[in-house]
Sequence to fold (130 residues):
Amino acid sequence: MSATIPQYRILIVDDEPNIVLAIEFLMKQAGYEVAKAYNGLEALEKVNEFKPHLIILDVMMPHMDGFEVARTLRQDDSYFNTKIIFLTAQGTDRDMAKGYGSGGDIYLTKPFDNKELTTIVQEITEYELN
Fold:
């Protein structure tokens, strides 16, 4: 791993603590700096504090869903280039279109494959750092 990877910040947003814990473990094991949020409003607060390069974002959450979080971030020039991976149980074509339309860069469905998620994050990281 490159020495710069620990500086790459990832925010994990999901209302299921076990999912957050699993993704946090994967990302920390890969050497990333991680922050967590458990709903959409908390996600927006954490984004302002933590300044993530990448957000792994659930859709169905209390207070504000992931689509609304993504739309809000995309309206702010400071976060326009922040990468967003939707990771959700909502996997219809309509949901995926809504995810990409709200500003998502990648749309993955649960249950997810640990290796696939890690590989996608590493590819984004390598692209961003080069």
The chain has one domain: 5-129. The two ends are 14 Å apart (CA to CA).
